[in-house]
Amino acid sequence: MTNMIERQTLAVLVDNEAGVLSQISRLFSRKGYNIESLAVGATEDPKVSRITIEVYADEERITLLVNQLRKLFPVHSIKRLPLSHSIRRELVLIKVRTVDNAARSEILQIASVFRTSIIDVSVDTLTLAVIGDEGKVDAMQKMLEMHGILELVRTGVIALERGKDTINDDTKVKGEFNYGKNVL
Amino acid sequence: MQMTGAEILIQCLLEQGVDTIFGYPGGTILNVYDALYGYSDKIKHILTAHEQGASHAADGYARSTGKVGVCFATSGPGCTNLVTGIATAHLDSSPIVFITCNVAENLIGKDSFQEVDITGITMPITKSNYLVRDVNKLADTVREAFGIARSGRPGPVLIDILKNVTAEQTEYEPLPLEQHRFHGHLGKLIQRATQDFKAPEPDVEDVDKMAEMIKACKKPMLICGGGVVRGRAHEEFQRFAERIDSPVAVTVMGGGGFRGRSPLTTGMIGMHGSQASNMAVDGCDLLIAVGCRFSDRVALDPSTFAKQAKIVQIDIDRSEVNKNVKTDHHIIGDAKQVLQMLLDRLPQADHSEWKDYVFSFPTETEYTLDGETLTPKQISDAIARLAPMDTFVATDVGQHQMWAIQHFHFDFPGQLLTSGGFGTMGFGLGAAIGAQVAHPDTTVLHIAGDGCFRMNCHELATVSYYKLPIISVVFNNGTLGMVRQWQNLIYEKRFSQTTLDRAPDFVKLAEAYGLKGKRVHNVAELEEALREALERKSGYVIDCAIDIDEMVRPMVSGGSHITNFLVD
Hints:
The complex is a heterodimer. By secondary structure, chain A is an alpha+beta fold. Chain A folds into two domains: 6-80, 2-Layer Sandwich (Alpha-Beta Plaits), CATH 3.30.70.260; 87-158, 2-Layer Sandwich (Alpha-Beta Plaits). Chain A has helices spanning 20-30, 59-70, 101-113, 134-145, 172-175, and strands at 6-15, 37-42, 48-57, 75-80, 86-97, 117-121, 125-132, 149-154, 158-161. In chain A, the strands form two sheets. In chain A, strands 5, 6, 7, 8 and 9 form a five-stranded antiparallel sheet that branches. In chain A, strand 2 and strand 3 (48-57) form a beta hairpin. The relative contact order of chain A is 0.18. In chain B, strand 15, helix 18 and strand 16 form a beta-alpha-beta unit. In chain B, the strands form four sheets. A six-stranded parallel sheet of chain B has the order 3-2-4-5-7-6, with helices on both faces. Chain B has a six-stranded parallel sheet with strand order 11-10-9-12-13-14, sandwiched between helices. Chain B is α/β, with parallel strands linked by helices. Chain B folds into three domains: 2-196, Thiamin diphosphate (ThDP)-binding fold, Pyr/PP domains (Rossmann fold, 3-Layer(aba) Sandwich), CATH 3.40.50.970; 204-358, TPP-binding domain (Rossmann fold); 376-545, 3-Layer(aba) Sandwich (Rossmann fold). The model of chain B is unreliable at 194-199 (pLDDT under 50). Chain A binds chain B through residues 19, 22-23, 26, 30, 60, 63-64, 67-68, 70-71, 73, 76-77, 168, 170, 172-184, and chain B through 119-120, 123-124, 127-128, 131, 147-148, 150-153, 177-178, 180-181, 186, 189-190, 192-194, 196-200, 203, 316-319, 321-323, 332, 334.
């Protein structure tokens, strides 16, 4: 099972400084990975940013990648977030064409079924904000396609572990990374 | 005290105990060189012929002393000329701080004269790099750069300083070296490592488990990698090998980590490894690799490498575990410390039967020596006979490199200076300059091929100017020997673009630089030249004519099983 390629979610805490994102993303391209989803933002500590990255990789390769990431000095900590044990959300804004009143009311109905909000209205369009994991977003997208999606933007997935575990927990692997005693 | 950025930089170098810099000046780094002018009594600057030579010299200095090397270059082409040297240091974990200057703040991002994004370019080949845009952050950055270069697994760090920063003034507060770890960003990094992370000690359970594995094994095999050299763990390694009574194979980077004359050594391992080394790896039941990443030149085919054995890896860098070869157990830590912990747990073992088997295979290749032409083995033997035991050997890359490593016996870390990971042709002369500057009274040999020598031979100007008594021995076969060897064996003798039947005459070249040169054709001439070279106190080039089709033996082709010898 270890060599099955799966979508992997990584949460990475880094220094909130210029150039750090490029350092992280270059590591992925250097090792031959396409980043499927990327979301970056400050955390409760404004000096620290949290990056959520998703890539397709097997168990062995993702371990190597995480090991490489840990070596970068701006990286504070990394955690793999398995699908079964984490909450994943993405915000998607979709602008849909409304040709007539019938279409408009149908779209409003779809929106209410998916519990999404309408955030902008014009004579010819409706803009919806969808929050969910990719299952919900994909289903919603399929329903709206027939009306003509004019524009769609996704924030990228953000994720947190379920329960009391956090990215700051100490683990043995984490302990194996340090800057060494012989700094001076 | 108020000082300019350039003066602060020099003060910070003095804090680190830097007394030697290799470099090349230029427009943007003028302020720094101007500040350096006032410190010529404290810091020696070696001006090379080319920035690449400076980068290799700083590398040779670092490798031979174990200290951090320092290299200066200007913006644009100055710093891009360092790139090969930085990558060479990165692949071989050599601690160097490269200091470059960039154009001033008002010119940044405008494709100004000699502007280049060197921090972007060197991101994947440095341990860390910095662009300093604020003079108030300069001292902190330099302290952090040195701390990072020498800590953990060492490596190159680059600091790019804007020209205006070198001219601006700010308050400089001296900080003794032993205080650095408690201040600034370096202090934060270390705090992060010790507070959030477990203490950097090797895991005791891991060590216990490994001790049990060693006690249970019947046929142990050790690999001495570059980590033993970088960690200066040679004494512990020696005792460890003797305690568990195991044969020891040495990688190219491990040269000098284990005494070459020890009865336990099986010689080099890998593509050009000895039969004894490669057969032992293929027959052991426990393989212990210390500071070795199982590169493709060592493991060859990772899927069949030591498959019958349990593989244990000792490395300071967690990211090396399971990278190339899957291991059964690993210990993360400094080789010196881990080996000492193992020594405390292990009784004296005896594996005579296994050793008899391993040493029934040759540890060195036998060459027939009856021809008219000089052979590589004869050159190596003559050098070994005449050169002092503590001679530093810097090599370039190719056949001569393999011959040198196969035939010379290295006894201490830093004695062999060679580009093992990146395979940089032209590395040797620069590295020899660095080693000779650091060890003015010790013999430094530069072993080169004719192809490599041609790449950076302009550094003979540096050898000549600073009166460095470096002896360059050129294995001159008139071809890119290693590539020709592959063409001979694998490409049906189609010698595409490898024949080097062209100028210059190396003897005349040496003379043009004010050095002595001699072309030799047999052992007697070689010995005479070597004797003369060893007595002289200036550079000497010995051009040795060898046959164009000499091969490095044995050879296992890339990706094959380790005992699948293409030539014996």
